[in-house]
Design goal:
The complex is a heterodimer of chains A (202) and B (245). Chain A is of the alpha/beta class. Chain A is built from 6 helices and 9 strands. Chain A is globular. The chains are: A alpha/beta (202), B mainly beta (245). At the A-B interface, strand 9 of A face strand 10 of B.
Chain lengths: 202, 245
């Protein structure tokens, strides 16, 4: 009897785990809104950005793929361009305390300054709430929400899945492509791509 | 001296994956193909990635450098292991990976310098990109290892027949097999085609089985062919079939 009970119990547990995670945001549907604390101490409610394009960028400063994009200046240039286009750029750190990339709010602010980030702030998501809500799998990963609050992009920063900084020169930047297409009323050519990088350290 | 040794030690442990570029054939003759390999050795708990890394990582890349006139054929990578962490499924190699190539010497040149360059990402929880170029060395003691690697290579099975079709949320792989098959696993060769974490359970029928495969949430355009490997017991069968709509 015991052998019969065990697998059933495991199955029940597995279902419970999935249910507890809740539904993950889907591209083409309304983006889930949530409240998160910024490294600057302010509280950010995604709902308050309606009317503007919002870019969420998952980050972990010790991840080699994040280093690729910050070391080459690609991420900062993308942030600056998006800002110039009127988008709101929020970096998100979902690393749990003790895991790679987890740093204090003060350290996040110092790091933003050191790398010359153009992001509004870094959202402190150490409990992984925002990350799991958007199904963030890697750093970097890019999520874009349109002014109507619809999720229009979820995926990689670009199409060159490598840790080599040389590749940014020839890569197609999905964040900027999506913003350009959406702002000119065109359909989004690649609304989802496979994000590449380090796994988010939940 | 001690300091240098310590530094070297640190550098070596930081690497977590090392390569050797080897062949076992001592009698290299003009026009006669021989097996060569890039052998990866990983530190315990560290892994590198298959041709399709799955949900995380990047593919391991090998480039052979042979003299003009020599031919080199990179053989398909051996079957990986599906590693599940944080709800993400990746296709990896742990401990050791023997990545084979077949080299055919030209008619004239004998025993020139052959090198292979590898690029990889090695991960435990954190990841470190690595690359290295090594000269081919001949070691007859490796003959058995290379031979075993060749025998477990993904290969076409002449007595198996595959067909594939598109379904509402994925693909259906149908197979006619010589014997009934209860357990198997399909690894997709292309990225962003299948949901790597979706369970796979073949439905047996009198002539073989059908296998429902769930598509990836990152698939923008369905592929025209279903490519991958099927592991059945100790066998690894390569699959490459057109997808009928």
């Amino acid at each position: 009897m015991l052998t019969l009970i065990k697998p059933t119990l495991f199955a029940a547990l597995a279902v419970a785990t999935i249910a507890a995670q809740g539904p993950v945001a889907k591209v083409g549907e309304a983006a889930p809104t949530t409240v998160a604390k910024g490294a600057d101490g302010k509280t950010y409610n995604l709902e308050n950005f309606k009317g503007k394009y919002v870019v969420l960028e998952w980050t972990n400063k010790d991840c080699p793929f994040v280093k690729k994009h910050y070391g080459s200046g690609n991420m900062q240039a993308t942030q600056a361009k998006a800002k110039q286009m009127g988008a709101v750029w929020l970096s998100v750190c979902s690393s749990a305390p003790g895991k790679q990339g987890y740093i204090s709010a003060e350290e996040q602010l110092a790091n933003m300054k050191a790398v010359k980030s153009s992001a509004v702030t870094v959202l402190m998501d150490s409990e992984g709430k925002l990350g799991k809500l958007y199904g963030a799998k890697t750093t970097p990963q890019i999520v874009i929400i349109n002014p109507e609050g619809k999720l229009i992009y979820n995926g990689a920063i670009d199409d060159k899945a490598s840790p080599d900084p040389e590749d940014v020169k020839t890569a197609k930047n999905y964040a900027l492509t999506t913003l350009q297409e959406a702002m000119s009323g065109k359909p989004i050519s690649t609304p989802t791509t496979r994000p590449y990088g380090c796994s988010v350290k939940y | 001296m001690l300091l240098a040794a310590l530094c070297l030690g640190i550098l070596q442990t930081e690497q977590h994956a090392r390569i050797r570029v080897v062949a076992s054939e001592t009698n290299i003759r003009a026009g006669k193909p021989f097996l060569a390999a890039v052998i990866f050795t990983m530190d315990p708990h560290w892994h590198i990635y298959w041709s399709n890394p799955g949900d995380t990582g990047i593919p391991t890349l090998i480039k052979w450098n042979v003299p003009t006139g020599w031919k080199v054929e990179q053989l398909p990578f051996p079957k990986p292991v599906a590693l599940v962490a944080e709800g993400l499924t990746s296709f990896v190699y742990e401990k050791e990976a023997v990545l084979l190539a077949r080299i055919t010497p030209s008619k004239s040149v004998m025993r020139p310098a052959i090198t292979a360059t590898a690029k990889w990402l090695v991960c435990q929880e954190a990841c470190i990109p690595g690359s290295d170029t090594q000269k081919l060395t001949i070691d007859p003691k490796l003959a058995a290892k290379l031979q075993q690697a060749e025998q477990s290579q993904p290969a076409k099975a002449s007595d198996w027949k595959f067909s594939a079709s598109k379904t509402a949320n994925g693909f259906k792989l149908e197979a006619i097999t010589p014997t009934p098959i209860a357990q198997l696993k399909f690894f997709p060769l292309d990225q962003a085609v299948l949901d790597n974490s979706a369970p796979q359970s073949p439905t047996p029928n009198p002539t073989g089985f059908t296998l429902e495969l769930k598509q990836s949430e990152y698939m923008n355009k369905p592929p025209t062919r279903l490519r991958g490997i099927l592991t059945v017991g100790s066998k690894t069968i390569s699959v490459d079939v057109p997808i009928n709509n």
